[in-house]
Amino acid sequence: MNFYPIWPILAVFVGLFWLARFRLFAAADTPPTQQVRRLQTIDGLRGYLALSVMLHHAAIYHLWLRDGVWNVPPSRTYTILGTGGVAVFFMITGYLFWGGLIDKRGRMDWARLYLGRLFRIAPLYLFAILVMVVLVMMHADWHLKVPFGEFLNELAPWLALGLLTSGDLNGHPATMILTAGVTWSLRYEWIFYLSLPILAVAAGRGVVRTAIVLVVLATTFYLTYLGRFYFLSPIELTFVTLFLIGMACASLDRHDRKPRINDTAASSIVVAMLAILFLTCSSGYSPRAIALLGISFYLVISGCTLFGILTHRASRRLGNISYGIYLLQGLVLAVLFQSQIVRSFALVSPVRHWAIILLGSAVLVGIATITHAWIERPGVVLGKRLARLLPTTAPDKIPAVEAT
């Protein structure tokens, strides 16, 4: 019995695209007063990346329910969905923030930038951790199974916004699974943000800047192919390469080095690239997958809309709530499968398992929309208000950049 069919992927993408069209999800729209210079194709892409990661974890949940094993699913397709989704998220971060540095020629107002990042990431993150703590305490019948001081020591890494490695909490086995372990990627996002002042040194050097990025990218890609580089592990080297791909795309974009092809041709190429990816790669982190995803991403930032899908309002709504989809997916899945009745039902057949996932994905999008309107967006607005109180250390206003 195949528990990893293709139809759930289409059902989730098409079903949620159809659902997001309704006015019920208008709260996910960006208010006119908060409009900034944005690339609509990236906005539309984010939601599908977050949903891809959710589908990856939904596939893992079958193994978890059946064998108590949390590992990559024995399915090339569902493995690529998760790893490829995170890979492109890292490219987006590299593209947006390196592009911001280029626009400012490296002269950023760092206090305002980091304050903005803090209020972009922290509010929803802390909400997710609060829900996780509630689930842990409910499982323990609201009793502490460890001394209070030890409980606080266990909780502290979870409150570090993804920077620290977190373990089990209050004796709850595999606490990480409550969040589907998604907070690990925030650590690498923070490392990239903290590296920006160093990168800024090369941001104002025109053609030389682009040459430097392309040479470093070629070097790291080759080292990724070899699988070693001194103090960096192979996976860390891969992540560096992914950020550099985004940076290279930003450099080429600022020099107007975009492919001169129409949207239909570009969209067809991206579809072909994705087909090759899923047919020939075993992970989104392999050198071949990185190359295929990098080329596809370059076409997307150059205006490829995937036949109009990425610029559709429904896709942009899903993109606006992508952080919530990404961060809250584990909690929704954990609550769904907490019931023994649901667990038993899901283990009977692939149809039942994925029917529950389809229902859960709709619930997830609804919750992500609510938290976007009531937690994420107010947090961003508060961060901007506090930033305006800081003394300006850069000559111009910092470009508004959004990253998940």
Brief overview:
By secondary structure, this protein is mainly α.
Q: Describe the biggest sheet?
A: none
- Envelope shape: globular
In whole angstroms, how far apart are the ends? 36 Å
Q: How many β-strands, per DSSP?
A: 0
Secondary-structure element order, as H and E? Answer: HHHHHHHHHHHHHH
Please, what is the oligomeric state?
Answer: single chain
Derived structural class: mainly alpha
Low-confidence stretches: 396-404
Rg, rounded, reads 21 Å
Mean pLDDT across residues = 92
What's the number of helices?
14
Helix content: 55-70%
Which range does the strand content fall in? under 5%
Question: What is the element layout, followed by pairings?
Answer:
Blueprint: H1 7-20, H2 40-67, H3 76-103, H4 110-139, H5 148-155, H6 184-199, H7 206-226, H8 234-254, H9 263-280, H10 287-301, H11 313-320, H12 322-336, H13 340-348, H14 350-389
